[in-house]
Amino acid sequence: MSLTEPPQSPGMPALDRRSLFKGAAAGAGLVAAPLAARTTATGFTHGVASGEPGKNRALLWTRYAAAQDTEIGWQVMEADANRRVVAEGKVTASPANDFCCKAWAEGLEPGKWYYFRFTAPDGSVSDMGRTRTLPDGPTASWRMAVFSCSNIGFGWFNAYRHAAEANEFDCALHLGDYFYEYPQGTYPSDAETLPGRTLLDPQSELVALADYRARYATYRADRDLQRLHQLYPMIAGWDDHESANDSWSGGAQNHQSDSEGDWSVRKRAAMKAYREWMPVSDEPWAAYEVGDLATLFRLETRLSARSQQFDYNTLLRGTSSPEEAIARLTAFRDGDYADPAREVLGAGQQAWLAEGLARSKSGGTTWQVLVQQVLMGKLASATSITDTVPDNLPSYVRERVVAGALASRAELPLNLDAWDGYPAARARLFEAALAADANLVSLAGDTHNAWAFDLAHGGEAVGVEFGGQSVCSPGFENFLPQIPPQAIAGALVQRNPELQWMDASQRGYMAVELTPTRATSEYRFLSSVREKGAGVIATKRLSTLAGARKLEAG
């Protein structure tokens, strides 16, 4: 759960819209549907996508709705005027997988762009997609568009649109909260919901497999999201809202077993729908080798091993004075909070990551990049802000603000759902990075706001973190509208030594570039998410030099 939610490249082929859509026009004229009810008609209903890039392969995706199992052909072509076919095969669109088709295209060349498409038995052809393989050997740069937290009811997906039109990235990363599981009218409320962005059936909370599938169909009908998937291979991992708010291995804050059934059944349904509708493999975590430049480690931090989150409201229940609350929180800080048995990654994934960090660095790779979900940087509430909030706050906001202020006084973090809630697990990861002498870069989403941290452990610099703002889910500007965002950001930076910069009010995405000497995040901020097509009006660039493990401007 976000801090601000209520409880509940060179060689790139030309970007020519007519060219990329030519395959569909030559077939049955089918293009991806606009945002509309989930279609029952036969045909390619939700565009194309690719993901899981490797040096010699990529995973291709489409959806072909039909009355029964249907064999679909696919082709990968050179990204030039000749369109020479270099790989092809067949895959079955089946109701068992909601008619979603995924196929591995093997035998490709490293570091190249390709076009791909699917063909149905009646001769109709999908949209033409574009994908890219990972480079091999010396690599001068790699550019990634990084997204998280896209709640369709709050606005348009202008961040996806801007990144697609920019045509300057080698791949896209999605760090989670690709959609939200809430019912219509919950988050956002009906009053907050932007006209034209109302959820379609089901408008209830997602619990069953059919529910999750239908929500993907709604989101994937958005043309800006389709276009992003069409143009870039995506590396993606779920956060909590792809299943339920504040999920962990054994449950979720937004799951009630008495009315919604067994958590394991709901979790399996959410995972199955995700793997059907997204261009992802079935591997819970994976590594991607970008030549000698970087190893990207896609982590799973939610459903495999995460221990249940602590909750300040529960911890403080029954206290009658600030002094009693501080005493209880201090005892918690020195006891259960530091329990070394509490996990985020779990022993298996932790061992895989530690070995991968060491292998990457010893093999001469420059950057070790964590593609993960929640903030690693240490973040406490700023009492200079929370002690002066207005009296007319909603009750849930006031409770969270008061709890954060008390936690800060007890030297505890603001958000127990982030890595801050699992200090022993974070220490294990940082110790592995230090042992490997890694050039660690953490990429995180979840909070809806933009952050930049220097990461440290035991007095040693570990690396840096770029925390991305949301696509359209609101941040502090919605949570604490009575306080100027600049005041919130300034107070948080002053309070937290690791936090070098943050933005508390703007939506958008990160443009992250890796070179042999520098890792840079350009935070791109949109003028609006309530106006369709609104563009980027401001940017902020921060970077780190290889080996420095600290941030600098520019």
Summarize the entry for a quick read:
Residues 144-522 form the PhoD-like phosphatase metallophosphatase domain. This is Alkaline phosphatase D family protein. This protein is an alpha+beta fold and 554 residues long.
What does this structure look like?
By secondary structure, the chain is an alpha+beta fold. It is 25% helix and 25% strand. The chain has 15 helices and 23 strands. The protein has helices at residues 17-20, 22-26, 158-166, 209-220, 223-231, 257-260, 263-277, 312-315, 322-334, 347-362, 383-386, 395-409, 423-436, 476-479, 485-495; strands spanning 43-51, 58-65, 70-78, 85-93, 100-105, 113-119, 129-132, 142-147, 171-174, 233-236, 247-248, 251-252, 286-290, 294-298, 367-371, 440-444, 450-457, 460-467, 499-503, 508-514, 518-526, 536-545, 552-553. Strands 5-2-1-10-9-8-20-21-22-23 form a 10-stranded mixed beta sheet. A hairpin with a 2-residue loop joins strand 17 (450-457) and strand 18. Helix 3 packs parallel to helix 5 and helix 10 (347-362) packs parallel to helix 13. The longest helix is centred in the middle third of the chain and has 16 residues, at 347-362. It is globular. Mean pLDDT is 93; it is low at 21-40. This is Alkaline phosphatase D family protein. InterPro entries: Metallo-depent_PP-like, PhoD-like_MPP, PhoD-like_sf, PhoD_N, Phospholipid_Metab_Enz, TAT_signal. Residues 144-522 form the PhoD-like phosphatase metallophosphatase domain. Residues 46-133 form the Phospholipase D N-terminal domain.
